[in-house]
């Protein structure tokens, strides 16, 4: 049995509804289950962003929500705000803003970020109050649970969980030479 067979696999394949950047037919797909309030995800954010730039058309990057609400009380609304921004065509700008301003993720700041990004902030406020995007965030979370995710960030490379160090050089080497 190869080392690959001992690791957890992505049970919910990447779908059109996922937030993805990079070509659909890229030779490598990196899926991250992340939490916008998680300090480890905050440290991984610039690493992943740099790797996405470095690999260009050879990488498709997918981000799925995995808010750890017991220890990160603002993570779920931050994920819902990103989803709401996605409804206005600005998922990735909001994703980036949330990680760049991880220190301020209360609802007032989420609305402020929407305004700064030129989005309909009142629509986002209403969607947050109504819990419009809660089911989507829970779907992402449950797909992670089914795939063996129990912390953040958790990465999958071409559907196989990556359990090694996610420092830039290690992650980049794994992406350049997936098993």
What does this structure look like?
The protein has 179 residues and is of the alpha+beta class. The chain has one domain (3-176): 3-Layer(aba) Sandwich (Glutaredoxin). Helix content is 45%, strand content 13%. The chain has seven helices and five strands; from the N terminus they run ββαβαααααββα. The chain has helices at 39-55, 75-86, 91-100, 107-116, 121-130, 134-146, 168-176; strands at residues 19-21, 28-34, 59-65, 154-157, 160-162. Strands 1-3-2-4-5 form a five-stranded mixed beta sheet. Strand 4 (154-157) and strand 5 form a beta hairpin. Helix 2 crosses helix 5. The longest helix has 17 residues, at 39-55. The model has no long low-confidence stretch (mean pLDDT 95).
Structure at a glance:
The protein has 179 residues and is α+β, with helices and mostly antiparallel strands. It has one domain: Glutaredoxin (3-Layer(aba) Sandwich), CATH 3.40.30.
Keywords for this entry:
globular, 45% helix, Glutaredoxin, 179 residues, 5 strands
CATH H-level name... which superfamily? Answer: Glutaredoxin
CATH topology: Glutaredoxin
Number of strands: 5
Count of helical segments?
Answer: 7
| Major beta-sheet overview | 5 strands, mixed
**Unreliable residue stretches:** none
Map the helices and strands:
Layout: E1 19-21, E2 28-34, H1 39-55, E3 59-65, H2 75-86, H3 91-100, H4 107-116, H5 121-130, H6 134-146, E4 154-157, E5 160-162, H7 168-176
Parallel strand pairs: 2-3
Antiparallel strand pairs: 1-3, 2-4, 4-5
Helix pairs in contact: 1-7, 2-3, 2-4, 2-5, 4-5
């Amino acid at each position: 049995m190869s080392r690959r067979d001992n690791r957890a696999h992505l049970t919910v394949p990447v779908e059109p509804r996922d937030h993805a950047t990079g070509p659909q037919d890229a030779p490598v797909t990196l899926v991250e289950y992340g939490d916008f309030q998680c300090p480890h995800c905050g440290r991984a954010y610039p690493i992943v962003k740099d790797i996405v730039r470095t690999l260009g058309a050879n990488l498709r990057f997918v981000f799925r929500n995995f808010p750890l609400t017991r220890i990160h009380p603002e993570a779920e609304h931050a994920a819902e705000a990103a989803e709401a921004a996605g409804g206005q065509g600005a998922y990735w700008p909001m994703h980036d803003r949330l990680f760049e301003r991880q220190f301020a993720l209360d609802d007032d700041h989420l609305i402020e970020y929407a305004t700064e990004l030129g989005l309909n902030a009142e629509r986002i406020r209403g969607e947050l109050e109504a819990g419009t995007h809660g089911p989507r965030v829970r779907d992402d979370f449950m797909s992670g649970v089914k795939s063996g995710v129990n912390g953040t960030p958790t990465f999958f490379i071409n559907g196989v969980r990556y359990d090694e160090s996610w420092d830039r050089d290690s992650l980049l080497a794994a992406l350049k030479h997936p098993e």
